[in-house]
Specification:
By secondary structure, this protein is of the alpha+beta class. Helices cover about 60% and strands about 15% of the residues.
């Protein structure tokens, strides 16, 4: 494709009517965003004041300044709300007249405006309130607290808090339109700020959703033409794109030359030459290391002495990091003629770069760990140092790799988990470490080393006590041992974290999960010494008595199977969509939270897991947005949504607590409710992981629920 042809087509695309419509629509979103964010800020702060827990705190004498500033903030946001509302009205009117004059679209727009807003009392009140504030004064608002006793239950009642505007001072102004005055009079003694802000916002956002849909339909032919132009550009670029010069499994040397495909356990000549040059350069940088004299730190240790090895007892040259006589860090890996030799810290970084270049080779990446390659390079440096006739590094890597690679199984035991039958999760299997399995392994070990019978029997008795009967993540790979440990450990940790999402502890706060790779489970305990005059006591206790074992029966597995199939596709992150990666991150965050007994830590992880799914981007206000979208996902009832929002506000408030006192029982109950709701929301996202490509697509679908009737939800 010539650059001229491509440039001409791009000019046509940018000048098309479809692109003009898209650009105009984008420009219109700036004014709409001003209104939406002003509305959101006002609604958010009034909801806080309406929450009795927040309202009482703000009106307490001890929080007088916080309450006063909240009152001032409400007034500021009312001002911004009505100003943004009128700005949107005027800008939309001008936009339609400038771009759609003498078209049916302007007539449809005007008819909709007249039908929905012309004599609508609330709309006229908001418009007139802007003029009242601009030309008269700020409205006379007040925060209130009202308690209504319950005759049937004298000890109980209903507490309400909020903020409203007195209607009497408003009605003294003579410039209200008739519909606006009617609205004020219908409110009685007070106009509730939150009520009119929410109602007006719903109407305006619904109208602008309708308007954008109508504009898109009006320009449907233009948008179709734009799509065809863009498809033509894509075809043109695809047809003229150079074909790949090499097959899929090829490698490019660090020198930039293209090399032929490589077979397993061999390097193409070009790459082998590149490795040889890099290895020789590294070998020439090995230098004598004069170690810094050892210095004491001035006090003896009370720790019991450990094992000391002499030079004669060491089976290999120790690899150590140390400071040389000039204070520079150095890596010492060989010892000759009573002298130490090694690499400077900067040169060691070059060795790591060489390791990475080897691991990027297709066969090495699949079967060799970085640790294996690095150790092989160090061994090659040891064997080649001050030696004339030496093997090439490429031959050494290939030979040692061929000798080390074989079919392997990694069994990663899971603490406190038993399963009735094995099952798969993504690339691995969950299976039981049975008595028969341990006995078989013990017999094999005894047949290999019968002279060490006592040690072997002791080892396997320990294994029986530690892991027999527990489930394990079983991962199979043809590789060297370090590679299956490196890759399998990561996969095992991810799978265990996903499993915790389905555990009883995930839904039943304050229960915590003790399911983790064996040895990394979190079961805190206390070890306390109490000393007195001639007395001594020691107490050891588990701090989390409610971390139960988890047993997955065949019947339970049937219910979990759809969820396990879904998370199985998320184990490896490669190739996942942006939304799938967000769901994956959310699951891991929530799962990590289930291991913490501290409720504030659990709240922190759970809130972060929700924010990963429910925020389009970091510029969105987290608390308000999470509350809104969780409410939409959980219920169609507006009153219930407000209860959800209040619960989430309390979760954010508790997360920010600065004191270390325990939560009250009511607060613990609120946390439990919040975590159950969060689990449901994350589960909903998991169930739809294949439907959406990005988080904004998922969020758009959630917000569309607002426009659905209960019968269609």
């Amino acid at each position: 494709m010539s650059e001229a042809n491509r440039g001409d087509l791009l000019k046509v695309i940018h000048a098309s009517r479809g692109m003009e419509h898209i650009n105009r629509s984008h420009q219109r979103t700036f004014t709409l965003n001003i209104f939406r964010m002003n509305a959101q800020e006002l609604i958010e702060i009034t909801r806080r004041v309406n929450d009795p827990d927040e309202g009482i705190r703000l009106m307490a004498v001890a929080n007088r300044e916080a309450g006063s500033q909240t009152h001032r903030e409400v007034t500021r946001r009312v001002h911004n709300f009505v100003a943004g509302a009128l700005t949107l009205v005027e800008h939309t009117r001008i936009f339609m007249r400038e771009n759609y004059s003498n078209t049916p679209m302007l007539d449809r727009y005007q008819a909709k405006v007249d039908a929905d807003f012309k004599d609508q009392a609330l709309v006229r009140f908001v418009q007139d309130l802007r003029n009242y504030i601009l030309h008269n004064e700020l409205p006379n608002s007040e925060m209130y607290m009202h308690f209504q006793s319950n005759p049937d239950h004298p000890e109980g009642g209903t507490l309400e808090t909020g903020i409203h505007i007195r209607t009497a001072p408003l009605l003294e102004w003579r410039n209200w339109s008739a519909p606006a005055r009617t609205f004020i009079e219908s409110c009685g003694e007070f106009v509730d700020i939150r009520t009119f802000a929410e109602s007006y916002t719903d109407s305006i956002l619904s109208f602008h959703g309708w308007l954008q849909s109508e504009l898109d339909q009006f320009h449907s032919a233009d948008l179709d033409e734009l799509r065809k132009l863009q498809e033509s550009l894509n075809r043109l670029e695809t047809a003229t794109k150079p074909a790949p010069a090499v097959a899929a499994e090829t490698n490019v040397s660090s020198g930039g030359g293209v090399e032929e495909p490589e077979q397993e356990f061999s390097f193409a000549p070009g790459r082998a030459a590149t490795l040889a040059a890099a290895a020789d350069a590294l070998l020439h940088k090995v230098r004598k290391i004069e170690l810094e004299p050892a210095r004491g730190d001035g006090f003896p240790s009370e720790r019991p002495p450990g094992v000391t090895l002499t030079d004669q007892e060491m089976l290999a040259v120790p690899l150590v990091w140390a400071n040389d006589a000039e204070g520079r860090r150095a890596f010492v890996f060989t010892y000759k003629d009573s002298a130490h030799f090694g690499l400077d810290e900067e040169t060691f970084a070059e060795m790591q770069a060489l390791t990475e270049s080897i691991v990027k080779t297709d066969w090495a990446r699949r079967m060799l760990s970085r640790g294996f390659v690095e150790k092989t390079i160090i061994k090659w440096l040891q064997d080649s140092f001050q030696v004339e006739d030496r093997k090439s590094l490429a031959e050494t890597i290939a030979r040692d790799g061929r000798d080390a690679v074989r079919p392997l199984e990694l069994w990663a035991p899971i603490a406190n988990l038993e399963v009735q039958n094995s099952f798969t999760v993504g690339p691995a299997e969950i299976a039981t470490i049975t008595k028969a399995m341990i006995e078989r392994l013990e017999s094999q070990a005894l047949s290999f080393a019968p002279q060490q019978r006592d040690s072997i029997v002791g080892l396997f008795n320990k294994l029986r006590e530690r892991m027999q009967g527990f489930a394990a993540v079983v991962f199979k790979l043809r590789a060297e041992a370090g590679k299956i440990e490196e890759e399998g450990a990561v996969i095992a940790r991810i799978i265990v974290a996903f499993l915790r999402f389905f555990s009883p502890a995930a839904l039943n706060f304050p229960a915590v999960s003790a399911n983790a790779l064996l040895g990394s489970e979190l079961v805190p305990s206390s070890n306390l010494l109490v000393l007195g005059d001639g007395t001594f006591s020691y107490k050891e206790a588990i701090l989390v008595p409610n971390a139960p074992d988890w047993r997955i029966s065949e019947d339970a597995l049937k219910g979990m199977r759809p969820g396990l199939d879904a998370v199985g596709g998320l184990v490896r992150p490669e190739g996942l969509s942006a939304f799938a990666l967000a769901v994956r991150a959310s699951l891991l965050l929530f799962s990590t939270g289930t291991t913490f007994p501290n409720p504030i830590e659990r709240l922190s992880y759970t809130l972060s897991s929700l924010e990963a799914l429910l925020l389009r981007h970091s510029a969105e206000p987290a608390e308000f947005t999470v509350a809104e979208r969780m409410g939409l996902l959980l219920t169609q009832d507006r009153t219930q949504r407000e209860e959800v929002a209040r619960n989430i506000r309390e979760a954010y408030r508790l997360r920010g607590r600065q004191d270390i006192s325990p939560l009250f029982p009511r607060e613990m109950g609120s946390v439990a409710t919040f975590i159950r709701r969060a689990h449901h929301v994350i589960g909903t996202a998991l169930g739809n992981v294949g439907r959406f490509g990005t988080v904004p697509e998922f969020v758009n679908a959630v917000e569309n629920i607002r426009n659905q009737s209960p019968s269609t939800s």
